[in-house]
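$ fold --in a.seq
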Amino acid sequence: QALSDQAAERLADLLAWLANDLFRIRRKVIMGNLSPIYPGASAQELLLVSRGMWKNLVLMGCEVAQAPRRINRYSWRAYIELKGMEELVSTILRPQPTILLSGHFGNFEMAGFAAGLLGFPSYTIIRPLDNQYLNEYVNRFRSMHGQYILEKRGSSAQAEAVLQQGGMLALLGDQHAGPRGCWVDFLGRPASCHKALAVFSLVSGAPLLVCYARRTGAPLEFEVGLVDATDPRLHPERCQSVRSLTMWYNAMLETVIRRDPEQYWWVHRRWKGKPLRKRSRVRAAA
């Protein structure tokens, strides 16, 4: 919490080099994710993206530690630049439920922190971290300004209640959903997505807003913005089905990831397994 921005950046550079170049932590997973998406990139170019990702993760930890001390309702303009807020704010202020969707990109924790700081409380569905003490620490940060935490397991009824009451639900849209998920292309590769994200919007009629929080320079310098929004009542072509809506929001997430690929979490297994249907066909053929 006491590190200067310069010291935090030097620490991030060092730890990123150790994780990426020396110890090669999860190198196989990272390169397995990157190589098919950037087939024309050289090994050195992919290595730089991987190292940049590790730096982003370290800086994210530093920012979570420092943001409560430095960013408040008087100082936030020095750290956060808002983009596309007119449509986002006008949608949130309507007497209706709203769904905010983001991905493991940039410092996504700052999106919820900023929303609460600016007076827009939200309910966020998360998977508890394995380390109990770290989980408690991060949740204290998340809930400082009106971000309420719903644990992923068994939260469906709570999420539906939030939407029925006209509340705002915040979700991460790039988590692997297993073979029974909704399979769509994400960054040019088949990925399994949770059907509940689209179902929440289609059943409740809640507009779905794809947002991001990307680092623009030194630590704690962010651009928080809206990629695009869709409303089941206004955009029937996007909201014909769970699949069509899932395809749309994945395409929106792609636009910010391709702009700053080093800020995406290539370390997690986003692309794995196969659709259950394909597996069944293989068994039948055997």
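$ fold --in b.seq
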Amino acid sequence: MENDAKIFAVIVCYFPEREILGKTLESLSSQVKKVILCDNTPGGSELARKFKQKISNLEVIYLLKNTGIAVAQNVGIKKAIEEGADFVLLSDEDTVYPENYVEEMLKAYFSLPEKEKIAVIVPNYADINRMGERRGFIIFKNLLWKRILPEKGLHEITQAIASGMIIPTKVFKDVGLMYEDLFLDWIDLEWCWRARAKGYKIIGNADVVIYHRLGDVGKKLGKRFYPVHSEIRHYYIIRNCVHLALRSPYINFLMRLNLLYKSIRNTIGYSILGTPHLKHFFYCLKGIFHGVIGRLGPLETK
């Protein structure tokens, strides 16, 4: 099945930049049967329409408002499944793939034993905001999230970011789709935890590297590096972290403690590094409050 596997790419965009989205589409369109671009831009992006004229296997789904990453991903995933896809490749709009990406990832997937228990295979990624530094993979061990940096091989890991994920579509029947109420952030990680709780494995392929931009800018505070976003994005990061720490049925007690610690540490980091500082601090506190009371969905800013 490796050579004739039908793979669809699902990309989510929001006010996309021409050069960045162009590189993503150019690097993927020739490697998959179809690219589904789910456009979260209010009113629809004119840029998405222009790319549709140039790329023959591109379908653009205009959601006409910001529905959130999870909703947009689910729209694309459902479309791919309806059209008979064997695999879905998830991507953000700011990720660039090597020319043999899909071929190498599928080759690795089909080399694995007990493929029926593989939920997703992911690549290593190099962070554009860190001068292309390779970020490796994350495992949870002894109360801490540990980053491993293998040079090669396949490794069982705890979680992964969405960009580059290749998921067999049959897995969605058991694990389910993305958790839409989160709206933004922690969606990919929560799906990984859910898959693992159901007995599936998350596999990282160190032999393949993609280029991804994590955060708007990267800043250091002491020895720690923070991907810094807007204050509203920081709200979602903190809110969903607290919500999952308190309510997710798919993580253990030690993971919960670690997530609560992360929410406090990130609140301090974002408030110091984000400007204006008080505005970022306010949105982080609001995120903590909403996470505690379980208020999810999009943030009402009016």
